[in-house]
Amino acid sequence: MSQKVLITAAASGIGLEIARAYVAAGATVFITDINQQAIDAAQREVPGLLATLCDNAKLADIEKMIPAAIKALGGLDVLVNNAGIAGPTATVEEVDPAKWEQVIAVDLIGTFNVTRLAIPHLKQQATASILIMSSLGGRFGYPNRSPYGVAKAGLISLAQTLAIELGNDNIRVNAIAPGAVGGQRIENVLQGRASANGKTVEDERASMLSIQSIKSFVDPKDIAALCVFLSSDAGKSITGQVIPIDNGALKAA
């Protein structure tokens, strides 16, 4: 693989795992993040990784980032829209409107702007791929997490719309919908729920896994492998799809 790949919010977590997978497959990878220290650490770990600071909620940042990425990569074959924030936990009645708008700004509007500005460069390739990171919460109603669920559902519609619009340009567009992903973030969530509910972390873990067919959290490496597959020649006939990777989850919880 000699693809030129741009991944947003990829200096840590799932994004960095995706970057590692593309580099291992032979791609040239450019990442963005809002944390310079995390970028520096990622570049030390992954030789050749290109990067710049970018806040997905700021159009001015995105307008600077896209040309910088294209110049550094020498073109663009794959865009992975990974940037997103979790947002508040509250009922619709009680949620802070400012926090609602922040989630929409980063997760949905930011992804729209990155993609909008990347499309002309993707069109210059014989074939290209856009991947949009949605969520289990975008497929189902998500109690107490409405901003996140609404944003992630919007991303599914965006992916499906783009797939139709860009098909004649041989650009494939798919949404990936992970469930609960293993790592420090989910451990922090479990700790918070345990404290709030007066239960043990293991009680909360069992409760979260009870809605899944396979009783384990999703391995970030599997999400990365899915990205590489979808944007490879092996995925050349897949577009306009929402691909769950959630161990058979039946709802968002």
What are the salient characteristics of this protein?
single chain, 253 residues, alpha/beta, Rossmann fold, 7-stranded parallel beta sheet, 9 helices, 14% strand, SDR, SDR_fam, 3-oxoacyl-[acyl-carrier-protein] reductase, Sc_DH/Rdtase_CS
Describe the model.
48% of the residues lie in helices and 14% in strands. It has helices at 13-24, 36-45, 59-73, 97-122, 136-139, 146-166, 184-197, 201-209, 220-230, and strands at residues 4-7, 28-33, 50-53, 78-81, 128-133, 171-178, 242-245. Helix 1 crosses helix 9 (220-230), helix 3 runs parallel beside helix 4 and helix 7 (184-197) crosses helix 8. The chain is globular, with a radius of gyration of 18 Å. It starts with a strand and ends in an 8-residue tail after the last strand. The mean pLDDT is 94.
Quick rundown:
Helix content is 48%, strand content 14%.
Q: Indicate how many domains the architecture comprises.
A: 1
The ordered H/E elements are EHEHEHEHEHHEHHHE
- As a percent range, the share of strand residues is 5-15%
Strand tally, please? Answer: 7
The CATH C-level class name: Alpha Beta
Low-confidence stretches: none
CATH architecture: 3-Layer(aba) Sandwich
Q: How many helical stretches?
A: 9
In CATH, the homologous superfamily goes by the name NAD(P)-binding Rossmann-like Domain
Gyration radius, in Å: 18 Å
Strand order of the largest sheet: 3-2-1-4-5-6-7
